[in-house]
Amino acid sequence: MKGKQYYWIIVLCVLVICCVWVTGCGNNDKKETANECPYEEFIVVDVFDLTANYQGIQSGWFGEVVRKKFNMELNIIAPNMTKGGEMLFDVRVAAGNLGDLIICKGTNGQLQNLVNAGLLYDMENDLYDKNIMRYQAAIDNLNSSVRQMGIYAIPSQVSVNAPTVSSEGSEPAFGPYIRWDYYEELGYPEIDTLEDLLPVLKQMQERHPVTENGAKTYGFSFFREWDDNMMNVVKQPCCMYGYDEYGVVLAKADGSDYQSIIDDDSIYVRMLNFFFEANQMGLIDPGSANQNYDQCFKKFKNGEVLFSPWPWLGKSALNTISNMEDQGKGFMFAPVKDLQIYSYGCYPYGNQDSIIAVGSQSADPARLVDFIDWLYSDEGIMMNGANLFGATAGPEGLTWEMREDGPYLTEFGIEALLNGGEVEMPEEYGGGTWESGTSTLNYKTVVQCEKSERGYYYYYDLWDSVKDLDVSPLAKDWKEKMGADNTMEYLQKSNMLLIAPGMLYTASVETAEQSTIRYQCKRAIQNYSWEMVFAPDRQRFEELLDEMQAAAKSYGYDVILEYDMIHAKAKNGAE
After folding, report:
1. Distant-in-sequence contacts of 540-547, Cβ < 8 A, 24+ apart
2. Is there a domain that residue 169 lies in?
3. Which domain holds residue 23?
4. Are residues 233 and 324 in the same domain?
5. Residue partners of 432: CB distance under 8 A and separation at least 6
6. Span 361-384, average pLDDT
7. What is the pLDDT of residues 461-509, one digit of tens each?
């Protein structure tokens, strides 16, 4: 009898071992083998992500890749998508648990504050043998600003290139992108300044007042969720004249000018006037104040908007192969003559404005360190950075492949990346469409011009094989008119690109008083800016400008202006 018992015990053990081997490290219906995933316990990871434009569980093919490799799901917590999002950070900090994985700012002493509060996990012992340590100089530099010994965070957008090399690919980060097909219809009218673009857009709107689906056409459509020190959409044209923000200061890329954003003669107030005039002409979508990024993107995709301040918005939404080749429509860079496009230089020490870290309350911090290491690997960079335009290409073997003369998009990749992203993913990638399954982290580990260990650019729009694909009538017409193969080439030939060297600079920690003043001022500036854009007439616009300036001053604006001015100038002089 005992022999039979032993027999069945042995059989049962064998069955258990087989089940474990078959199911791997997943729970329930997880299919991968133990060799593919070393983690037995399935976990849900709360990702507190200041840059995300999506909230909830990461689904689709990227979610499936993460599940198979790490047996975990990413639950994105996005202040951008939450009412009172700015307070969410403070609430979670006060609770002692910001998240399991954290993507936030690391400048102005914020990293030190998080370490002081005991919110970050020291990754040093877990990282010493990881591939990510090829960026050790950038990692050490970031963490040297922290008084406590250890590695508490990793900087974004790392690069091996010099600081004076533009970090962008074939398109700049900012620019006036317009419906080129409509511009061609008008006979390519000359545009001396950005303000001269308004009557051009008005003519486009008058010729095409509604889309094919009956929706009204507008020159501009935007959203609130990216507003910070100022109204975000108003800041974008400032970047087209060589300025970018440092707090409440707009600093020119070459260090030649520094402005307070609320001064009467500032570039920011000029652009408030620009959008006010646009609204007076009926060019601004009245729904802008009450929509989010996704809703805005859909309007671009449906052809309801004529101007885009970023290539990755207008072009990714509308410039599909079918639209460009079959219908000849799409967004292209407009020839505005007086522009000086702000370009970010490469960051040898990474971009410390956006960092990634592991929360101290994480149940499995070592697994999250492995995940971060993967995000900075060749495979992770290609997966996490994949999107519809100016991005990485996704899974090798599915969307792209290596050939003797370099990387090529597969037929599937061309459909997924260049034709709208609505192609269905294979079942082994979880199904769904390509577009709906891309990473929602919105976190760039490397700059666009960075190359992999195998020597190819991570970003597919820089591949020779992809450049040869763009033979649409729209692209051909733009190239002939502009005398360049792509926008960056045009800007360089025209001496219209202003590169801000990717210098490393760490500002002193803000005091509690300064942080309070900044919060009050930026809320006032945001709210008044929106009112000014939609002001009923010029008189009310000027009244609101006076009120905005007075309100900011009453909160102590000059205190943070002095702080930001000192550090903006010091940053440009940093080495």
Report:
1. 541/273, 541/276, 545/264, 545/269, 545/272
2. no
3. 1-40
4. yes
5. 59, 60, 61, 424, 425
6. 97
7. 889 998 877 668 999 999 999 999 899 999 999 999 999 998 777 777 7
